[in-house]
Specification:
This protein has 672 residues and is an alpha+beta fold. Helices cover 52% and strands 12% of the residues.
């Protein structure tokens, strides 16, 4: 690529900047979920890494070890924070310039290696195929950094084609191969399915591509080289990602991601639509032509591409259906097979001038297809079905209604009251409200579960003073997998179970797709019967949840409570183990109005064992039948208190500082 490297790269950078800038400028500030998450990671890392590099390095290492979505994809992107453009534009530009562009370059180099040509025209056209490929652009423009892993997938193939690992024991290149495949997994964990497929197919292509003899020596060399690569992969994973690996091995992702699963036929259909009918049909036809008339190496690459596609797709869809970002490697395999065929056709044109014209026309068509798919220039139902999926800039109708809703919620929560957003799709969700308030409301947004089996039911979600619900219910998955959204919404709309405690306030907001959003205020505590009735709606679908909810008595008590947190430090939060973390305020106590459901004993534990102040916490219980219990919990003390006089009656608990509230954190638990 040396002969055209500088002008092509320079033009590509300008092209990427123009496309990205126009695309982002057309979007509204409604980024959410995966469209937003790595942008936020990037912003935080960009701000902190130059201030406290040592602390951030520790944070990155911890993220590698524990997080499903670690910080590694955005590490090298942080320098784009210095661009004099908006944060969102700088982030998307960093993905496209530092990840998408190198992927196009190595793809072109791979084609040159496969075809064994140094013809600039072929290199250039291979490059155009990748740099205009919509399935690469669409997720990147949405904020997904997932294409970063594809760079190392292509590099691993390049290593195997450039170095004959069947000829001899090659420690250096085997280690490089293992490193590349591990980096793909490190950057985005779901590349593991592609990595597994490559460990099955790369040894085979190594033998046939390099025309090695199928003797004992060849097989021995291949086995040992790929064993070293595999062990490198395993060792690096154990060293840097042990806790993640352990969690992956202990988690049934097929079960918890069942809401993301669709029939195999639909997953295949969806994947075809990602690149478009025309692209898929041409890939099939061109692959067949290569297999019938192409050179041996091209035939091998076509078989290799389809084999990896089938194996990795089958493995992935066993867990869930792929999203646009997870389709990147699948579409890459199709592009690799397509490129073998189209370059074979062009190579059959004897006239150099004609071949240049053909490639020029095809390049223009590819650019037009890309622009149409990203900006919707030409609206034609038939044509759009033939071309890649439309991935237009993020927009909603009635945008001003969204702004008014966000502003009203921001005002409602200015006294630190909480709000829960029970809506889960592109029309409305918590992240949209967060963005529209410039993150000012974030501390007052209560976490709301989105997917039943993945998230479970979050008790805190119905403890907020305010809730936002939609009519009709807004879900992004199969309704059977998102009852944690639909059941609360329908109960509130129909004044059923917990819905009886809410009253509508303010006006309704007319959102995108004729969706109406309304705000409800929790006017009183839930009764025990209302809570039990609400939870029983889940138990008919998930009977195993009963053990985690109804049978943990403190959770039931928490769900019927009204909480008034003290100022500054005040806390009263349910923990995942069923205990409650509590803290008095700086000047005001934390007060809980509730009913202790079938609880005879409460265990109070002072969590301040490392605090250097000798202080105690005042805890008082007062019941509606005039029972009073008052005691002091000393520093580091555990007290088991008999509360049978307060069982199943309305009572109030007051947690108050004695000297200094700074060291007064406590845990409240019970014996079930």
């Amino acid at each position: 690529m040396k002969s055209f490297k500088f002008p092509i790269i320079l033009i590509s950078i300008i092209y990427i900047i123009i496309i990205t800038s126009v695309y982002v400028s057309l979007e509204q500030n409604i980024y959410y979920w995966d469209f937003k998450s790595y942008w936020i990671y990037w912003q935080n890392l960009s701000e902190n890494i130059f201030k406290s590099p040592k602390i951030e390095l520790i944070h990155i290492i911890h993220s590698m070890n524990y997080d499903d979505y670690n910080l590694c994809p955005v590490i090298i992107l942080v320098f784009f924070k210095f661009l004099p453009v908006s944060s969102r534009l700088a982030y998307i530009l960093s993905i496209n310039l530092l990840y998408l562009l190198p992927v196009a370059i190595v793809f072109s180099l791979l084609q040159s290696k496969i075809l064994n040509v140094k013809n600039v025209r072929f290199q250039f056209f291979s490059y155009i195929l990748a740099i205009t490929f919509v399935p690469f652009w669409a997720p990147s423009l949405r904020g997904y950094p997932d294409i970063c892993g594809l760079f190392f997938i292509i590099l691993s193939i390049w290593l195997c084609l450039t170095n004959n690992l069947s000829k001899q024991i090659d420690v250096k290149n085997s280690l490089k191969l293992g490193l590349c495949l591990w980096l793909a997994f490190l950057l985005r964990r779901w590349y593991v399915f592609t990595v597994i497929a490559l460990y099955l197919t790369l040894p085979v292509i190594t033998i046939f591509y390099h025309k090695a003899k199928l003797d004992t020596k060849t097989i021995k060399n291949v086995v040992l080289n790929f064993f070293m690569a595999g062990m490198t992969n395993v060792i690096l994973s154990m060293l840097f990602q042990w806790h993640l690996i352990k969690r992956i091995l202990q988690t049934n992702y097929t079960h918890i991601y069942s809401a993301y699963q669709t029939p195999l036929f639909y997953s295949i259909y969806s994947e075809i639509l990602t690149g478009g009918y025309l692209f898929f049909i041409l890939t099939c036809c061109l692959s067949l032509i290569v297999l019938l008339r192409g050179e041996t190496k091209s035939k091998i690459l076509v078989i290799f591409s389809w084999s990896n596609l089938i194996i990795s797709f089958a493995l992935f869809t066993h867990t869930q259906s792929p999203g646009m970002h997870q389709s990147i490697p699948f579409e890459f395999w199709l592009l690799l097979a397509f490129s073998q065929g189209i370059l074979f056709i062009i190579n059959t044109i004897k006239s150099e001038k004609q071949s240049v014209w053909v490639m020029t026309i095809l390049s223009i068509i590819l650019i037009l297809i890309q622009i149409n798919s990203l900006f919707g220039i030409y609206q034609n139902n038939f044509l759009n079905k033939m071309l890649p999926n439309m991935n237009l800039p993020l927009k909603v109708s009635n945008y001003q209604e969204y702004i008014h809703l966000a502003q009203y919620l921001e005002n409602l929560t200015k006294n630190n009251d909480k709000v829960s957003i029970f809506s889960s799709n592109s029309n409305l969700n918590g992240d949209i409200i967060s963005n529209l308030t410039n993150f000012k409301i974030d501390n007052n947004l209560t976490y709301v579960s989105q997917v039943d089996l993945r998230d479970g039911f979050s008790p805190d979600s119905i403890m907020s003073k305010y809730v936002v619900i939609t009519d009709p219910v807004q879900l992004h998955l199969n309704p059977s997998g998102q009852r944690v959204i639909s059941i609360p919404v329908l109960d509130i709309l129909n004044k059923h179970n917990i819905g009886k405690a809410y009253v509508k306030i303010g006006r309704s907001y007319n959102l995108n797709d004729s969706v109406t959003a309304s705000i409800y205020k929790k006017n009183r505590n839930f009764t025990i019967d209302e809570v039990n009735g609400f939870l029983s709606e889940f138990y008919q679908y998930y009977p195993e949840w009963k053990k985690n909810l109804s049978e943990q008595k403190l959770k039931l008590s928490f769900l019927n409570s009204a909480i008034s947190k003290g100022d500054v430090w005040g806390q009263f939060e349910l923990q995942s183990d069923g205990s409650i973390y509590a803290h008095p305020g700086a000047t005001l106590p934390t007060i809980i109005d509730w009913t202790l459901v079938n609880i005879d004993k409460l265990i109070f534990t002072s969590l301040n064992t490392s605090c250097n102040k000798d202080d105690s916490i005042s805890i008082e219980l007062m019941s509606s039948n005039n029972k009073i219990l008052h005691f002091y919990l000393k520093k580091g003390e555990i007290s088991e208190i008999n509360v049978s006089d307060f069982k199943n009656v309305n009572s109030k608990m007051i947690i108050k500082k004695v000297k200094d509230s700074g060291c007064d954190a406590i845990s409240i638990s019970t014996t079930n």
